[in-house]
Amino acid sequence: MIANNTYSVPELVALLRAGDPNAFQQLYEKFSSKILSTCKKMYLPHEDAEEVVQEVFLKVWEKREGLDSSLSFNAYLFTIMRCSIFKRSRKNAMDVAYKTYQLNNGTGASCYTEEALDFEELKVFSERIIDALPKGQQKIFRLKFTENLTADEIASRLHLSKRTVENQLYKANKKLKQEFISNDLIPYDLVVLFLIF
């Protein structure tokens, strides 16, 4: 068992990469409060902030074999945290958008099931459109909107130029908008909310 404050962060990361649970515990104790504090500064409720901390360190443990002790562990944690907060915020924004749509269209509790089915249909429809995109566009689109990567990060990961990534994102967005707008089953105002969030 390793003693507290004996190892530097890079050394702890190297031990964690080898599967040392004590190194993981020390890294958790060293960084968890900092992540929690940052989440709260970003206006997450305490319970959500705690969940983000758990998600971040769960991801660290799952990906431990790929850790590089020569890179900034702090930056790695905050990248995971940012993605977790983005996904949570995006879900919350979608919930708000849907509730706003319900209010603006006079839908009450009695219509909830029907409206929920319409919204579920929208999600299934959007997945079908994304799946129909050319493989390259689909991959870039998912990296952008599922993992919240920047064009530079996507370009680096896929070994493409930033210009190529931006061009493929533009084409994918244009195709999605065309498909949404041409589908008469989905109200245009809900389409706009979906595309924004």
TrEMBL record:
<dbReference type="InterPro" id="IPR014284">
    <property type="entry name" value="RNA_pol_sigma-70_dom"/>
</dbReference>
<dbReference type="InterPro" id="IPR000838">
    <property type="entry name" value="RNA_pol_sigma70_ECF_CS"/>
</dbReference>
<dbReference type="InterPro" id="IPR007627">
    <property type="entry name" value="RNA_pol_sigma70_r2"/>
</dbReference>
<dbReference type="Pfam" id="PF08281">
    <property type="entry name" value="Sigma70_r4_2"/>
</dbReference>
<keyword id="KW-0731">Sigma factor</keyword>
<feature type="domain" description="RNA polymerase sigma-70 region 2">
    <location>
        <begin position="27"/>
        <end position="92"/>
    </location>
</feature>
<keyword id="KW-0238">DNA-binding</keyword>
<dbReference type="Pfam" id="PF04542">
    <property type="entry name" value="Sigma70_r2"/>
</dbReference>
<dbReference type="InterPro" id="IPR013249">
    <property type="entry name" value="RNA_pol_sigma70_r4_t2"/>
</dbReference>
<protein>
    <recommendedName>
        <fullName>RNA polymerase sigma factor</fullName>
    </recommendedName>
</protein>
<keyword id="KW-0804">Transcription</keyword>
<comment type="similarity">
    <text>Belongs to the sigma-70 factor family. ECF subfamily.</text>
</comment>
<dbReference type="InterPro" id="IPR039425">
    <property type="entry name" value="RNA_pol_sigma-70-like"/>
</dbReference>
<dbReference type="InterPro" id="IPR036388">
    <property type="entry name" value="WH-like_DNA-bd_sf"/>
</dbReference>
<dbReference type="InterPro" id="IPR014327">
    <property type="entry name" value="RNA_pol_sigma70_bacteroid"/>
</dbReference>
<keyword id="KW-0805">Transcription regulation</keyword>
<dbReference type="InterPro" id="IPR013325">
    <property type="entry name" value="RNA_pol_sigma_r2"/>
</dbReference>
<dbReference type="InterPro" id="IPR013324">
    <property type="entry name" value="RNA_pol_sigma_r3/r4-like"/>
</dbReference>
<feature type="domain" description="RNA polymerase sigma factor 70 region 4 type 2">
    <location>
        <begin position="128"/>
        <end position="176"/>
    </location>
</feature>
